[in-house]
Amino acid sequence: MQGDTRAFGRLVSMHQSAVRGFALRLCHDPALADDLAQEAFLQAYRKLASFQGSGSFASWVLGIAYRCFLQHKRRDKRAGEVLHLLEQRDAELARFYEHISPAQLDLERALHALNPNEAAAISLNMSLGYSHAEVAAIMDMPLGSIKSHISRGMAKLRELLNAEDAS
């Protein structure tokens, strides 16, 4: 094993500038090129047993670097799509919240800080006017659990809203 790592280290030394240069030409970002080259060599080390030897090691590891670059682009594209969706959602929320008072906005922020059961139970009971029994039926929970969620949630709301007032 020790000989394998030394031999692989020599291969890295021989080919790292070519792999990094190739990655830099693909991504135009020196830090990212370093990351891609490092990932390519890590994958090459893990897959060393699959290297057939029919081509050069350099071409094999450059192929791995290229696939690392493509994976990065796919992840980057997906991250961009997710960011776009979040921006759209934020714009919709902004339109929803632009017509509420600062006090209502503070309440919405505080409700968002509660756990989902507490927020749902309080919203159904306090905002929409359902009785504890009706909230229990809607949420399919025992009445005692609903009362506990509302009680704990209200205590947290008071604490959160008082903390906002103090600052």
Describe the structure.
- This protein is mainly α.
- The protein folds into 2 domains: 92 residues, Orthogonal Bundle (Rna Polymerase Sigma Factor, Chain: A), CATH 1.10.1740; 67 residues, Arc Repressor Mutant, subunit A.
- The protein is 84% helix and 0% strand.
- It is built from 7 helices and no strands.
- Helix 1 packs antiparallel against helix 2 and helix 5 packs across helix 7.
- The longest helix is centred in the middle third of the chain and has 41 residues.
- The radius of gyration is 28 Å and the shape is elongated.
- It starts with a helix and ends with a helix.
- The mean pLDDT is 84.
Overall radius of gyration: 28 Å
What number of domains?
2
The biggest sheet, with number of strands, parallel, antiparallel or mixed sense and barrel status, is: none
Question: Approximately what portion of the residues adopt beta-strand conformation?
Answer: under 5%
Number of helices: 7
**How far from one another are the termini?**
61 Å
The helix/strand series, from N terminus to C terminus, equals: HHHHHHH
- Which CATH architecture of the largest domain is right? Orthogonal Bundle
Q: Runs with pLDDT <50, length 5+? A: none
Structural class: mainly alpha
Query: Helix fraction?
Result: over 70%
In total, the number of strands is: 0
